[in-house]
Specification:
- The chain has about 70 residues and is α/β, with parallel strands linked by helices.
- It is built from three helices and five strands, in the order βαβαβββα.
- The strands form two sheets. It has a three-stranded parallel β-sheet with strand order 2-1-3, sandwiched between helices.
- Strand 4 and strand 5 form a beta hairpin.
- The two termini are about 25 Å apart.
């Protein structure tokens, strides 16, 4: 079973906390600071990501968290 997660959050501290927690539970973690970076990661790693955690309030340049989802 694939246990890889993509975290999308512009707040670096929030990403670090989520990454640390998930890794301690055995998940592989990819991390992006905005929706555009997340799309790049998904294009490269799509078969390797089973869950995407997005800050839906994030208003990134070019695309919001809602638009990403």
């Amino acid at each position: 079973m694939n246990r890889n997660v993509l975290i999308v959050n512009e707040n670096v501290n929030s990403r670090i906390i989520a990454e640390t927690l998930l890794r301690s539970r055995g998940f592989g973690v990819h991390s992006a600071q905005d929706a555009m970076e997340a799309l790049d990661i998904l294009e490269r790693e799509s078969a390797d990501v089973s869950l995407v955690l997005v800050d839906l309030d994030e208003m990134s340049p070019g695309m919001s968290g809602w638009e990403l989802m």
